[in-house]
What we know:
Blueprint: E1 5-9, H1 13-25, H2 28-50, H3 55-92, E2 99-103, E3 107-112, E4 118-122, E5 126-131, E6 135-140, E7 145-149, E8 153-155, H4 158-176
Antiparallel strand pairs: 1-2, 1-8, 2-3, 3-4, 5-6, 6-7
Helix pairs in contact: 1-3, 2-3
Amino acid sequence: METKFEFVGPRTEAMIKDFAFASVFKNKIFFIIRIVLLAIFACNVFLHFVTWDKPLLTLMNASFVLLLLYIFEFSMYRSVYKLTLKRQNEISRNEEIIFTIEFFDEMLKHRSSLGETRIDFSYSDVKYIVKSKNNYFIFTKAKQAFLLNKDQISKGEIEEFEPFIKAKIKEAKNKAK
């Protein structure tokens, strides 16, 4: 079994911030909630222009809905960021943990320098992948995530990684049908 791609390195605070952003703002459920709240906002603005009997009230309602949207998203982002950072600090006990994630044709393997814990995952366990400027986040059906910094690739070419992982996920989904 030959390693196609390998990422080796610690999780940094910048990676965790980027992960929290991706978890909230690129999550399908939160996207739907955002669309619903923006639709309510648009309806309130429309009512403001249609009904002139209480224009200030409808405008205040619209502003309130938009404010709720921003508060919701910001609080979710902070919550995910703080929880992930807290878990990272609890696990590491102030030691730097080096994570190694290897990608093979059949599966991916995850291990850490902390006790050499090793976990094997099938590509059928992957739910979706999110790409940011500096990172990839692979979300699994078990509500876990792999944080991959593009600069931490130690085997393979980063330009070839995304087509490879997307093909493997698609192939696994087709086999499951």
